[in-house]
């Protein structure tokens, strides 16, 4: 029995005490590492939240910059469109005024000159036309001349107007 006690004391001092001390140190080390990991998880979560906030702010800033650029570009395009539209309208007003002047000049054209011109045209086209037919056709020729002059002026206005708008839109696009 004394050998058993001696063996128990020897094993306790040489084997179990160092082993218990090692296991306690290892357990404390594991607990410390787990605590550090929990702290780091908190820090990581905090850093993720900060990164998300930075990204959100950057996106908002980029969105604001894009919106500002869109507003500026839209304003520039509207200003250029208004300027070109004003130019076209001014030119159209000038063209209409010129055509109105031509119309008035045409309408002021003396009837005697129209009759003379009509009779010359008819005599050249129909040299053997009797005088009675010529006198009957002069009012019709006068009316036709005035109507064709007005249609010619309207066609000219339409052509000028369409040409300016085509040039304007092709320069924008």
UniProtKB/TrEMBL annotation:
Pfam family, one: ATP-synt_B
Source organism superkingdom: Eukaryota
Presence of keyword Coiled coil: yes
Compartments reported by the entry: Membrane
InterPro entries: ATP_synth_b/b'su_bac/chlpt (IPR002146), ATP_synthase_B_chain (IPR050059)
Chief location bin: membrane
Signal sequence, renumbered to the chain: none
Keyword Transport: yes
Coiled-coil regions listed in the entry: 30-105
Keywords: CF(0), Coiled coil, Hydrogen ion transport, Ion transport, Membrane, Transmembrane, Transmembrane helix, Transport
Membrane topology: Single-pass membrane protein
Family of this protein: Belongs to the ATPase B chain family.
Alphabetized PANTHER family for the sequence: ATP SYNTHASE SUBUNIT B', CHLOROPLASTIC (PTHR33445:SF2)
Free-text function comment from the UniProt entry: F(1)F(0) ATP synthase produces ATP from ADP in the presence of a proton or sodium gradient. F-type ATPases consist of two structural domains, F(1) containing the extramembraneous catalytic core and F(0) containing the membrane proton channel, linked together by a central stalk and a peripheral stalk. During catalysis, ATP synthesis in the catalytic domain of F(1) is coupled via a rotary mechanism of the central stalk subunits to proton translocation.
Protein name: Uncharacterized protein
Native species: Platanthera guangdongensis
